[in-house]
Amino acid sequence: MSVLLINKDPANAATVTPTVYSYLKNATSIGSDTAGSATRQTVPA
């Protein structure tokens, strides 16, 4: 999956924290992780 963020107001920068949400096999809830960078995330198997 790819995500493209468009800054419609280039005069004002914004900080974006990439977050991966996952629901693993036999899990009881949805997990999230902000590890990685804006260009590379590791998705749990």
Could you name the ranges where pLDDT drops below 50 across 5 or more consecutive residues?
none
- Mean pLDDT, to the nearest integer, reads 79
Tell me the Rg in angstroms.
14 Å
Side-by-side strand order of the widest sheet: 1-2
Structural class assignment? mainly beta
How many helix segments? 0
**How far apart, in Å, are the first and last alpha carbons?**
15 Å
Overall body shape:
elongated
User: What is the beta-strand fraction?
Assistant: 5-15%
Largest sheet: 2 strands, antiparallel
List how many beta strands DSSP finds. 2
Please describe what this structure looks like.
With 45 residues, the chain is mainly beta. It is built from no helices and 2 strands. It has strands at 20-22, 31-33. It has a two-stranded antiparallel ribbon. Strand 1 and strand 2 (31-33) form a beta hairpin. The two termini are 15 Å apart.
Task: Map the helices and strands.
Layout: E1 20-22, E2 31-33
Antiparallel strand pairs: 1-2
List keywords for this structure.
mainly beta, 45 residues, two-stranded antiparallel ribbon, 13% strand
Short account of what is shown:
With 45 residues, the protein is mostly beta strands. The protein has no helices and 2 strands.
